[in-house]
Every structure is written in structure tokens, then in C-alpha cells.
Amino acid sequence: MYELYYWPAIQGRGEFVRLSLEEAAAPYADVARGERGVDKMMAFMNRDGVGTPPFAPPFLKYGRLLIAQTANILLYLGARHGLAPKSEAGRLWTHQLQLTLMDLVAEAHDTHHPVGVDLYYEQQKHEAARRAESFRKARIPRFLGWFESVLVRNPKGPGHLVGGRVTYADLSLFQAVAGLKYAFPRATARALRKTPHVAALHAAVAARPRIKAYLDSERRLPFNESGIFRHYPELDG
Q1: What is the distance between the alpha carbons of residues 207 and 117, in angstroms, rounded to a whole number?
Q2: Which domains are seen in the chain, by residue range?
Q3: How far is CA 183 from CA 33, 42, 67, 119, 140, in A?
Q4: Distance of CA 48 to CAs 41, 44, 53, 146, Å?
Q5: pLDDT of 177
Q6: What is the pLDDT of residue 12?
Q7: What is the per-residue pLDDT for 49?
């Protein structure tokens, strides 16, 4: 069984890993949600004897293997569970797409924390308004437009980012779009009208049997104003 370590009250970056584990029907324990789970998670980050200590969650433990960083975890899971191509070129391309999605996630986070993560949103609202305006008008359309072009150029058709079957990059694009729709509903709706293949992929992933079952379960936490994607109406323009 995999052991996933991430903060227990938010989706955050850990959700990208959960979606792949759910799609793969891979048994896993969401450790920090259990008894003294956060203490166990922090112990790994603070333990002197850990040879590959994680800087921050999420991280995944499997036997003696300890892997941190969302894209790195998915690179590992994709190869093990058929969520990435078998060829080296295909695996690297999928990894590249995931890294680009992580850039998008970081920029979304910085709309409400543009000055510093150690400050509350209320302490940087002016700067957040400026950052969010740029993100809404320029960055959301640019990111989604680029992924639209990737879908259009896929030789196997626009149903997937890579090849003709689902990969962890598809699952992660779904999650990124879901987060954007929550945080910036008006801006994201405008962008999705111009990126119909991205919108279609989002809907297709949500309808996949294992993903739908997960989304309908209590394991899928709702978005909230403690996570990466936060909805502050004033930032949606």
C-alpha cells in the first residue's frame, strides 16, 4: 500500500497525486488524515536518519522508497500504473506537461499571496488585486491556450494530451481547471469558451468511472480558502 503524506484539510498539490492513485485503483493510505497523522508526516521531514528528506508535502512512501514533489511522484506512478507512455520520449513529454501545470498552480497560488506566504491575504490585498488582474487577463488564457494547442496537435486526436489514452497529465489538467473554475469562475469561463478541447477534457475526466466515484465520495475534500485555489470575489474582476 502506498502512503501519501499531505495536509489533511485541503486538496492542494496532494490532490494531483490522489487523482492518479484513484484512477489506477491503487490502494493507498492518506496518512495525515489519520490519528496523529500530521505528527507522522512532520517526523519524516524532521528526521535526521532519512536519506532523501522531503522539503514539504506531498510526498509518497512505498516500502523504503520516499518520493517528494508532485511532478516527481507522478513520474513514478505513471510508469508503474500505465498512466504514462512506455517510451522514454513519451514519459518525458508527459512529465514536461506536468511541470508546466505546476507552474500554473504556483501562479494561481501567488494571486492571493503575492508578497509572502508568511503573511495573511488580508495583509497583501492591494498587491493581490494587481497580481490577480494580470493572472486573469494574461496568464489563464495563455496557459489554457497552450494546452488547447497541445490537444489539437496530438496525432491521436484531441481527447488526450498524450497519445490515445489517459495519462496523469490529463488528470492534472482536469484538477487545474477545476481549481481555476472555483477561484476565478468568471475569468475561467471566458478562457474556456476559447479553449473547447480543454473544456471537453475536463468534462471527460470528471466522467471517468473511478474519478467520478472519487469526486462523489467524502475522500474528495471541497475547495476552500486555505488551499492553493481560493475564491475571493474581488480577485475575479
Answers
A1: 35
A2: 2-80 (3.40.30.10), 88-208 (1.20.1050.10)
A3: 24, 29, 29, 19, 12
A4: 14, 9, 8, 42
A5: 98
A6: 97
A7: 60
